[in-house]
Structure formats: structure tokens, C-alpha cells
Automatic annotation (TrEMBL):
Family of the protein in this entry: Belongs to the GTP cyclohydrolase I type 2/NIF3 family.
Protein's organism: Paucilactobacillus suebicus DSM 5007 = KCTC 3549
Protein name (database record): GTP cyclohydrolase 1 type 2 homolog
InterPro entries the record matches: DUF34/NIF3, DUF34/NIF3_sf
GO molecular function, one term: metal ion binding
Top-level taxon of origin: Bacteria
Length: 269
């Protein structure tokens, strides 16, 4: 197969048209007509991930987060980020990024996160519009019901277990509240806490909550769990499963591997 085959099939699932306007999704680097034999799924494209890809003889990196959040100002290869680009080019590795289109699409990132929590009766947290591929309503985030109600402390412990993390931040806007209806939005979703309140969520799970926004959440009597941004690593395995399915359906002669590099930048001490 060629790289474009996988790109085309993925975009039938998660159209670039449903990505946020500020986002940069799609082909990040390389030639879309390059033959591909080994694909690696990853959350982030970092120098250590590229090193892993080279060692595994990968020729296509499929990532959730775009390779470039900020444009390169020069091509000084003493800069680790620039050198990473050079290594990708030197080893003929195609890079593709599926970011907010994967966050928005039904059956994508936020459904995967809701599934990890065993939420039922899920609906989108945000109203995104109509998916041009499916004709269905789509929207970022999910709101659903826990298997059983629990207090805030137990809920925080549950989130740690579900997402396999050693620590998180709990914004306990109403300590005596029982948590039953939960909103979740992968990545940085602090700005959308009012939508969680409007959807009658007892608790909201999202990453990268800022200090002043946390104060506002408390003022709204909202319980918020901030497990960090890295819980989106659920995509590494889920993308592998998707690609395996499509490979069988289309008789692609490729191997699919998952990155084993932990790109979580924070350590709990």
C-alpha cells in the first residue's frame, strides 16, 4: 500500500472538515505516495518516539497530536526539534496527525475515554455540527452515567485506576456531592466547564486546568478531576485496532505497531 491509502481511509472515518479551525491535521511530513510496510501509532511525535520508529524500521508514524504546534523559525539541527525533522526525512518516515477531528468524531477519542470509565447513555458535551461523512451530529467531549454513584474521593481514586496514573488534581467544588453523571473531554478542556454544568454533570474530567479557571469551577459547585493531558494515550491501542480492521478489509500488506515510549512530561513526586 501507499501512505495515501491509509490517509484516505482514515479521513472517511474522521474527516479533516470536523477539526477545529485553528488545528493543523493531516499529512505533517513526507510523501503521501510513498510505499508503506510498517505503521506505528503514537500520541506524540517526540525525538524519542522518532528514535523508536527508526529502530523498528517504521515508515509511517500516525499520531494524535500534530508534529508541529509552532512553526520552525530555522533549520538549525543543533535544536533537538529540528534534528527530529531531519531524522524523519533521512529515514523516509511519513508523519500524519489526527487531532481535533479524532476528538470530535463519533467513535473516536472521547468515546474511547468514556468507554474506559464505563459510562453509559453518552451524548456529546459540545455541539460540533453535522459530520459530512456520516451525516450524524458530532461534538467534542462526552457526558454519561457511571456504573454506580460514588463520593468525590472515591471518584478521584476510580479515575486514577481507570487511567493508570499515579496522581491527579481534584477541584472539589462540592465535597458532599455524589458523582453519578460525568462529563469528560480529553486534552485541555478547562474552558468548557460551563457546558458541563449546563449538561447537569456532577463531575467534569479534563486536563490542563488553570488556577483562575479552577476558582471559577469551585464557584459553580463543580467537582473537576484533572488527570492531565496524557490520558489521551488511549488512542495508541485504539488506532491500532482500527488499522488492523481496515488492513484486513482492504488486504493491506502492512504491520502495525504501537509506540512504547511514555511521552508524559510530568512526574508525580
Amino acid at each position: 500500500m501507499i501512505a495515501k491509502d491509509l490517509m484516505y481511509r482514515f479521513e472517511q472515518f474522521a474527516s479533516p472538515q470536523i477539526a477545529e479551525k485553528w488545528d493543523h491535521v493531516g499529512l505533517q511530513l513526507g510523501n503521501s505516495f510513498q510505499p508503506v510496510t510498517r505503521v506505528m501509532t503514537t500520541l506524540d511525535v517526540r525525538p524519542e518516539v522518532v528514535k523508536e520508529a527508526i529502530e523498528k524500521h517504521v515508515d509511517f508514524i500516525f499520531a494524535h497530536h500534530p508534529m508541529m504546534f509552532h512553526a520552525a523559525e530555522n533549520l538549525d539541527l543543533s535544536d533537538p526539534q529540528n534534528n527530529m525533522y531531519a531524522e524523519l526525512i533521512k529515514h523516509d518516515i511519513v508523519v500524519y496527525g489526527a487531532h481535533t477531528n479524532l476528538d470530535n468524531v463519533n467513535g473516536g477519542m472521547n468515546d474511547w475515554l468514556a468507554h474506559e470509565l464505563n459510562l453509559t447513555q453518552t451524548v456529546p458535551l459540545l455541539d460540533g455540527g453535522i459530520d459530512p461523512n456520516s451525516g450524524e451530529l458530532y461534538g467534542m467531549g462526552r457526558v454519561g452515567i457511571l456504573p454506580k454513584a460514588m463520593n468525590t474521593d472515591d471518584f478521584a481514586v476510580y479515575c486514577k485506576q481507570v487511567f493508570n496514573i499515579k496522581g491527579l488534581r481534584l477541584i472539589n467544588g462540592e465535597p458532599t456531592k455524589l458523582i453519578n453523571r460525568v462529563a469528560i473531554l480529553g486534552g485541555s478542556g478547562g474552558e468548557f466547564y460551563k457546558q458541563a454544568v449546563a449538561m447537569n454533570a456532577d463531575a467534569y474530567i479534563t486536563g490542563d486546568v488553570s488556577y483562575h479557571v479552577a476558582h471559577d469551577m469551585i464557584a459553580h459547585n463543580l467537582v473537576v478531576v484533572d488527570p492531565g493531558h496524557h490520558i489521551e494515550c488511549v488512542c495508541v491501542h485504539q488506532l491500532h485496532l482500527l488499522f488492523d480492521k481496515w488492513s484486513t478489509e482492504n488486504n493491506w500488506q502492512i504491520q502495525i505497531t504501537e509506540s512504547k515510549v511514555n511521552t508524559e512530561p510530568f512526574t508525580f513526586v
